Amino acid sequence: MANAPMNDADLRATVIATLQSIAPEVEPEFLRDSRPLRLQVDLDSMDWLNFLIGLSERLKVAIPESDYGQLVTLKDLMDYLKARGG
User: Mean pLDDT over all residues of the chain?
Assistant: First the structure.
């Protein structure tokens, strides 16, 4: 049985918590939904990969490598995860 989708606030909190597990210095209040997330938090490609894998594991949502390119902003991530039941 699949988990019920999270509301926006819970989903955002999970995304931020996952991000902070990779980059503990991230201050959520300074994140902007429409700016490229990697640039805002200065993640290298390995950290970004670990972040996406962490999201996939926490939310039980498959994120195929072919989709990585469309996950640029926090809004992109939120929309993508909501559409997949995150």
Answer: 92
